[in-house]
Amino acid sequence: MPKVTIIGGGWAGCAAAVGAVKAGAKVTILERTDMLLGTGLVGGIMRNNGRFTATEEMIAMGGGDLFEICDNTSRHKNINFPGHNHVNLYDIAEIHGAVFSHLHKLGVEIIFEARIEKVTMDDKTILSVQDQKERIFTGDVYIDTTGTAGPINNCNKYGNGCAMCVLRCPSFGGRLSLGALVGVSEMVGIKPDGSIGAMSGSCKLLKESLSIEIQQLLTREGVAIIAIPEELAENHLDIKACQQYALPDFKDNIILLDTGHAKLMAPYFNLERLRKIPGLENARYEDPYTGGIGNSMRFFNMSPRDNYLQVEGINNLFCAGEKAGLLVGHTEAIVTGVLAGNNSVRFALNKPMIQLPTELAIGDAIAYVKEAMNTQDGMSKKYTFSGSAYFDRMRELGLYMTNVLDIHSKVESLGFKNIFNQNITDNA
């Protein structure tokens, strides 16, 4: 039985675990903090726009475990907000327990507070990794899902300082990239103005700190849109990592989504000005705690990889999520994670690995982003199924579909139905 060791327990790491264990591997997740899901702990937005298509493609391929958990923990389903349709909002208080329980049932070993600091190599092959407690972990194959956010020095240098976000670098140590530790020449995202990195695009307000009227509206409709008086407006659209939410509506209005807390669709907003908006007089930030000043910085240390999600230059290393390129979002992390997990097992067994067909949105996105990252213009953009440049491409190519039966039929016609539900060690 191949042994797959995953560094990082965000959405990508959890999805990689699903992909690998269903393929027949023994799987260990080494998570830097004391909780899974990373920024997914304060996320919530699923199925918006082209993410609906990507979700159903992965479900049809048998890798939809985590999407089904998100559906089952959704506080609101099939809602709309500016620029985004047929949206589900999962409950951020329920999601961790649901994912943890599912991974436990699958037999995934999860080790918390394991910040990997050293790697032992044999030429271009990883033999073992070591954490801050000097514990040594081995594997046949490794998957880097450490993400691209932080650590503090990046937030200080390229952002507005440590925003005290859910990644909690001061408590658990900042992110260390496995790729960087083994000598991979990693890439850094740039903004159109040439500056480095991008700021996380949303905050969380304590729902109970808002007016009763706004609370009731959020509970009933899932979304609240509050016009910002012109003298209080702040324009942070250009710095957002999530360019699908960089529309004028998000500058002119406070847009709140009900994910348990109230998700404020802005990278930050001065607290004093925020409290001058009717209904927000007592507003309080829950994530990041200094959301009136700034937010976490992301898109540092992305790995060069092929379309199998194998990292170039290292024999037994794969990557997923933001490590795999300028793909923004939980959906994007999950689909790349499942593929990386499955291919890691195929690699360990010396079996042909999978490239997803470009006739599917998932396959096209993985291939397209790899090519885009070879150009300076491409490195200045962010790509997501839910908006901006890649969603435009989906629509132009006819990849955006919302009929579930049609999506599943297409996957089946391409020969990929339930491919991620197969234990490939059976005939190894």
TrEMBL record:
<dbReference type="InterPro" id="IPR040131">
    <property type="entry name" value="MnmG_N"/>
</dbReference>
<dbReference type="Pfam" id="PF01134">
    <property type="entry name" value="GIDA"/>
</dbReference>
<keyword id="KW-0274">FAD</keyword>
<protein>
    <submittedName>
        <fullName>Glucose inhibited division protein A</fullName>
    </submittedName>
</protein>
<feature type="domain" description="MnmG N-terminal">
    <location>
        <begin position="272"/>
        <end position="351"/>
    </location>
</feature>
<keyword id="KW-0285">Flavoprotein</keyword>
<feature type="domain" description="MnmG N-terminal">
    <location>
        <begin position="3"/>
        <end position="223"/>
    </location>
</feature>
<dbReference type="InterPro" id="IPR036188">
    <property type="entry name" value="FAD/NAD-bd_sf"/>
</dbReference>
